[in-house]
Amino acid sequence: MKIIVGIPAFNEEKNIGSIVAKLSQKYAKIIVCDDGSSDMTSTIASSMGAHVVKHEKNMGYGSAIKTIFNEAKNSDCDILVTFDADGQHQISEIDSLIKPISENNADIVIGSRFLGKTKDLPRYRKIGIKTITGLTNVVTGSKITDSQSGFRAYGKKALDEITPTESGMGISTEILIKASKKQLRITEVPIIISYTDNSHSQEPIRHGTSVVMSTLKHVAIERPLLYYGVTGLCFLILGLIFGAWTMQIYSEERVVMTNIALIGIGGVILGTILLITATILYSIVSVVRENR
C-alpha cells in the first residue's frame, strides 16, 4: 500500500527538517508544499529527502492542500496523509489514522482533537472550532467533532472524487461538504496535540471568517432553496407584518408612517426577489445534476 504524507508549510524552517527526517524513516514519499516561504523551508525539506513543490508567493493553506492533492493523484497513491508543519501532530498517530482506510471502513479519516487528550487548547480556539464544526454538521448532516483538523487521511476513492477549489482555510470544510455529497465514508480517530504560543499562523477571526464564508458559499450552491428561500421567506413575512402595521395605523389615525411603510415595502420586494432567485437556482442546479 502506497502511503504519501503531504505537508503544507509556510516559513517553517525551525520544524520542517526534523519532521521530514522522522517521517522519512517510515514513509517512502513526503511531499512538502512550500507556500511562498521567505525562509529556508524549501531548502531544508529538500535536503532531508522530501519532494518539494514551491509556490512563488503565499497563496493560502487551501492552495497548499490543493497542490498536495494534485501531487498525490499524479503519484497514484493509495492513502494521502496531510500533516501540519508546526510540530503539533504526533507521527506515531499516523498508523491509527490510516487504519480505517486500510481496513476498508472509511474513505476519509479525521484526527479529532476533541476525542483525544489535547493539551493546552486555547478556550477561544475551542469555541471557534466547535462553532464552525456545528455549522459544517448542519450542512453535511454528519456528526463530526473536529471539522478543522488538518491531520487527515484520504483514501484513493476520496482523492479521485474530490477536487478542492478553496484557497484559504475554508478548504477543510469544503472537502467535507463535497465528501458528504459524494456519500464518502468519514470517520474520526482521537489524536493528541500540544499547543505552543506560535502554533497557529493565522488569526482566529480571519480563520473563522474564511471558513464561515466558504461554508455559506457552498450552501448557496448546493442548497439554494435553503440559503435563498428561507432568507427570502423571512424577509417576506417581515415585510407583510410591517405592511399590516402600516395599514392598521392608517385606518386608526389616517396617517401613513413612512418609515414603517418603507420597511414593509422593502421586505416584500427583497423577499420576493430572493424566493424567485431560489426557485431559478434550484431549477438550474437540478438540471445540471441530471445531466451529470
Automatic annotation (TrEMBL):
Pfam families: Glycos_transf_2. Its EC number is 2.4.-.-. Residues 5-162 form the Glycosyltransferase 2-like domain. The keyword Cell division does not apply. Keywords: Glycosyltransferase, Membrane, Transferase, Transmembrane, Transmembrane helix. It is an enzyme of class 2 (transferase). The keyword Metal-binding does not apply. GO terms for molecular function: glycosyltransferase activity. It comes from the Archaea. The chain crosses the membrane at residues 225-248, 260-285. This is Glycosyltransferase, group 2 family protein. It comes from Nitrosopumilus adriaticus.
